[in-house]
Amino acid sequence: MSESIIFANARLLDGREPEGEHDRFVRVEGGVIREVSDRPIRDAGARVVDLKGRTLMPGLIDCHVHVIAAMVDLGRNALLPDALVAYHAARIMRGMLDRGFTTVRDVGGATHALVEALEQGLITGPRLVICGKALSQTGGHADFRGRYDHRDAGYQTLRLGAMGRVCDGVEACRAAARDEIRQGAQFIKVMANGGVASPTDPIAFLGFSTDELTAIVEEARNAQTYVAAHLYTDEAIARAVTAGVRSVEHANLIEAKTAALMKERGAIACPTLVTYEALKSEGASLGFPQTSVDKIDDVRLRGLESLEILRAAGVTMAFGTDLLGEMHRHQSEEFVIRGRVLPAIEVIRAATVNAAELIGLSGRIGTIAPGAEADLIVVDGDPLADLSLLTGQGRHLPLILARGRLHKNELNA
Questions:
Q1: 1 pLDDT exceeds 80?
Q2: Do the domains at 5-58+367-409 and 60-331 have one common CATH topology?
Q3: N or C: less crowded end of the chain, CB within 10 Å?
Q4: Distance between CA atoms of 349 and 30, rounded to whole angstroms?
Q5: pLDDT digits (tens, 9 = 90+) for 260-271
Q6: How far, in Å, CA of 110 to CA of 117, rounded?
Q7: What's the pLDDT at 413?
Q8: For the chain, what percent of residues have pLDDT higher than 70?
Q9: Are the CB atoms for 164 and 193 separated by under 8 Å?
Q10: Mean pLDDT score of the chain, rounded to an integer?
């Protein structure tokens, strides 16, 4: 059982108040935040950590990761032995927790076995929310066979290193969605547009028929959950949101009218700008296929503008990164990129309260309030004044608490 800890003299910043709250006291016990007060909290059995005005934030939430992506070439990644992929995933997730991310949403690849490994303490990492394998049509964004590979697409469905599975036709899509939920998926992911990393689908391609998308959404709702969709083009986004998709991943090429539709339907956007910057500078040297390199700028150049369009429409935005292979180390740089066009408090909300809303865990994570999970990070300095304090592989985070357990403590308390 985790110990009782009192954080004293903290500046709280969870996105709910524009400037945060100063001189607060927070008590955690049993993995839960028990008390938040503007006066000292007394508990003779608790460890007291005097933050001396440092910033106390909820553990960060990344809503778009692929923890099984050990390589940037996802076709080759799918062929790796499961054991090797699992070891890579453990290393990747440990790095995420070291950077202050205490919850991540995997949007293609991770299985329930990884969730169990984390819960049983076999590996160290953030809370893992999964969709299982992403659903793709033949030739879609999770079909990495290329033009000359004629194997049956089913070979990748059972491989840990594969991002997705192929299904065609309404009944096959229903069966695939049901099967992922059976295996532990907490939401469903569909590849509803062409993609950068996949070999045979230009960005403008539309994934799945409208009937297929509608059927997948129905199956998710029947299971009391939602659908997240890989989407770039304005046409694809409008089509998917009309079909009932709740979580719009990427959204680089969105236009104002479709952003208004998202707002009207209550859809949430999860932009992932850092991955395109990383792929542009490092992708080719790390083995990203040339066919994919050629597509990067099709979406990269509209990234910041898409944030402005979404903000103008009042669309809720969550934090996502979508990094692959050795580029996972750039995860926290998403904060700085977004900060070029968005107020810092909005960038922080994306990785706290907004992210919790998207995942369906509002009140449990992404906030500092009684009853919330004791996922907390301490920041040396003021992230509202300098978002780069959240970068540097956790260099400015002297303390990280995950589910009430100290993962890192450099405060000597």
A1: no
A2: no
A3: N
A4: 26
A5: 999 999 999 999
A6: 12
A7: 53
A8: 99
A9: no
A10: 95
Residue with tokens 């938040």: 36
Q: What is the CA radius of gyration of the chain?
A: 21
**Residue type at 202 in one-letter notation:** P
Q: How many CA atoms lie within 13 A of 133 on its CB side?
A: 29
Supply the pTM of this predicted model: 0.96
Beta-bridge mates of residue 189: 228
Question: Is the domain defined by 5-58+367-409 classed in CATH 2.30.40.10?
Answer: yes
Query: Could you tell me which residues are beta bridge partners of residue 117?
Result: none
Which residues have C-beta within 8 Å of that of residue 148, sequence separation ≥ 6?
Answer: none
CA distances from 287 to 4, 68, 76, 91 (A): 47, 16, 10, 20
3-class SS shares of the chain: helix, strand, coil, % to 5: 35, 25, 45
Q: Which CATH code, of 3.10.180.10, 3.40.50.1820, 3.20.20.70, 3.20.20.140, is assigned to 60-331? A: 3.20.20.140
pLDDT tier at 156 (50, 70, 90 boundaries)? confident
Q: Over 70: is that where the pLDDT of 379 sits?
A: yes
pLDDT in tens, 307-366: 999 999 999 999 999 999 999 999 999 999 999 999 999 999 999 999 999 999 999 999
Sorted by where each begins, the domain ranges of the chain are 5-58+367-409, 60-331
Helices and strands counted in the chain (H then E): 14, 17
DSSP assigned state of 289: -
Amino acid letter for position 272? T
pLDDT of amino acid 243: 98
Q: Which of 332, 335, 323 is nearest to 281 (CA)?
A: 323
Q: What are phi and psi of 32, to 5 degrees?
A: -130, 145
